[in-house]
## 1
Amino acid sequence: MSRILVVGASGTVGTELSRLLAAQGETVVKATSRQPGAADQVRLDLVSRAGLKEAFDGIDRAFFLAPPGHADQEALLAPLIDEARSRGLTKVVLMTAMGANADENAPMRKAERRLEASGLAYNIIRPNWFMQNFNSFWLHGIQTAGQIFLPVGSAKGSFIDARDIAAVAARLLTGDAFANRDFDLTGPRALDHTEAAAILTQVTGKAIGFTDITPEAMLEGLLGAGLPKDYAAFMVLILGYFKAGYAERTTDAVLQITGQAPRTFEQYAKDYRASWV
């Protein structure tokens, strides 16, 4: 068994990943930017780098991601990768996002390249847009207006359940069959937001629709919600990529790695029904 550091352990993917690893008998060390409140937590502030070296004490393997709210992901991920290299970790799994490798100058891609050149055994996973966005980031519009407000038109996305991302990460962290490979992770099929809203309506019994808004309106809403200006602009930018069709592609990576087909949007909606009713 290994001692595995999970960065982002309180997030959507990290919470499920930590649970899966612990269920397999692994020792999970959960990184938190706050003061640790449990024996399995360690303080690690990616912005200030406070606790960086201490977080890696005794660690064999690690899972990295950049937390939301920061547009320069490389600045946060590079110290993690460098520390993992100096400690000689036996495996690092890095989560970025589908499309991160489309631009060699993008911060996420620079972080990927840094890991690839590190000499460490690694995997890079690039999930598509999370299904869980509908019960978190897009929830306010659904609750207050019965609408999903996004600047994406009729474009489709092969949304993926965060639980499937965690299952992939757990398999890659605890095995070496796919070492030094990268994977784009998607759900089983692509849906537009009108189709997604119809499924939510059917599952919840509540009228939920989709309203296409302008990028300017999206930016205004994100800034109003308190997001930093550079990160709000980044979100609008990648939503533009969604509208251009870059999120529609599907892959068989979840099935290939875990042996299980990825969850459908219908199953996700049933499991999270309480979020909207």
## 2
Amino acid sequence: MQHKLLLFTLFILFCLPVKASTSATILVYHHVSTSTPPSTSISPEKLKEHLEYLAANHNVVSLPELVQSLQTGKSLPKKAVAITFDDGFKNILENGHPLLKQHQFPYTIFINPYDVGQGNKLNWEEMRRMTSEGVTFANHFWDHRHLLDKTAYANDESWLAETKKLILKAQNEIESNLGLSFRYLAYPFGEYDADIAELLKNLNFVGFAQHSGAVGQYTNWQAVPRFPAAGIYSNLRTLKVKMASLNMPVIENSQHQVAFSKAPTKIDYKLTLNTEDLRISQINCFYKGKNIEIERATDSIRINIAEKPPVGRSRVNCTVPSKSQNGCFYWHSQPMFVAKADGSYLD
């Protein structure tokens, strides 16, 4: 694993993307504080380090610019990155906003309207002030629940109907209080399934998750990847590699379902790829921090892991070098969400 990380570090040092790009990355943060849960927090000092690196090496664009450009085939500046925060904590305003404002970086905060102004959450007046200073606010569902938890519902139909109602309720609340809201939804805990993704598609929403990967032509717009950049993922040495990654050209993914009420006995799926720019013989996939064996074909790979995915959230990550962009590599992540025995999900 250390050898792979060293190899990825070399990629970032020599990655020479073209002047404009049809691939970009999105970062997700939560707290900006040293006194909040470590797994979802970044210190102001570490965030400052991230932002200084971005200012020197990347082009930070707004999330709406990133989405609109990639959906319409318009090129973005080279090495484009968008910055997002989930949950709308006050410490974003107190500790993060001054740093972002100093660099004049646009960013987006996903909020739960039910929680606005409660405890450590931003209130509407604070958000209106931030909006006037270039911050975008968007939908993180009505409240911060596990969308996949169906235990309180009689059937899937009533669960999905309630999910739809609360997505639109949150959207209306944001629009009425802030004047404008994009049709974006960041899934709480990054969790979704095929039914929720289809619901968002029918509502003309973009859905943002929390699995890894770059965004581009081949992105599923109801399962947009974002690189976590706080907690154990805040190390800039490894984050540099992720921010320079390219959108994996996945034509077909045989694993259509990502959420399971009961863990499957094994992980087994196929990715069909546009290999025109891929050094397919050098593709590597990782699971639980370890390199895994894969079956390679001319235009596809097969991942077959003979074990159940654990309860909670897990993922398989695959990377492959680009032929045309020296030192750059493509990144794809396959998330999996497995319920506990009682049908609920881990926080």
## 3
Amino acid sequence: MSNAVSPPAWSQLIQDHARSHPKVLVGFGISLLGVVALLLQGEVWLNAAGNDTVRWALWGGLAGLLATTLGAMPVLFLSGLKQKTEDVMLGAAAGMMLAAAAFSLLLPGLAAGEKFTGTAVGGAVLVVLGMALGVMLMLGLDQFTPHEHAQTGPCGPGNERCNRVWLFVMAVAIHNLPEGMAVGVSFAQGDLSVGLPLATAIALQDIPEGLAVAMTLRSIGTSAWKSIGVAALGGLLEPIGALIGVSLVGSSAMAYPVGLGLAAGAMLFVVSHEVIPETHRNGHQTSATIGLMVGFAIMMVLDTTLG
């Protein structure tokens, strides 16, 4: 008779992980309650069939999915990518995300909040509240979702039970969810001057992200087409996140600045916690930082031109 001890159940792994990260668990719970509260007040789905904001949000999310997939396509004829080149590309993507959060989320959020509350301070409080919810949401997803990054390895409870390919899918999904939510929130009030620049920037920065994911998968022996499929699968969170984002706000004047702040906080968390550290682990900090500045400048021009 075998004396082997059976592995703990998945639920037990999550419980053990939660006990070791109680503050993160509390913050994650608060953020989920906040998201649910925003969803319940949203009126978008009551007339979704004829709602232009839903269609714009969905198209913006689908653009991100398409860009991620197209970005992964070069793995069909590229045998590898220099680490410095990858770091510069991801740095540019980080710069575009930072600028998008600032110009297309935080500034419109502050303006909408001031209009709703009648004071600049009141508007800022609403946006900061949203940012806090976004950060706690992403911190919880990062801690309690099994995933893997190219440099830091597997993370989250039960990651040893998951195939590496699926761990990469989850990592891409965690990155793409806040981007999709940002697109959805930006279109929620039907203001194309806010939504269009952000959707364009998100789609552009998804191209190098898709390539980086696909090249990483190729480096661990995944076939070219499967690598593209994994990148596309993770990119599905863009349109899903967009629908969630547009539903968070609905037609509520108060929820709009909170929703913009939530999306901005989530994006800033991803950039600071994941993207920038990835570009600074391989000795190419200066090149990656220059890429970030270029990406920031491109997004600033896009926002000025399309906004």
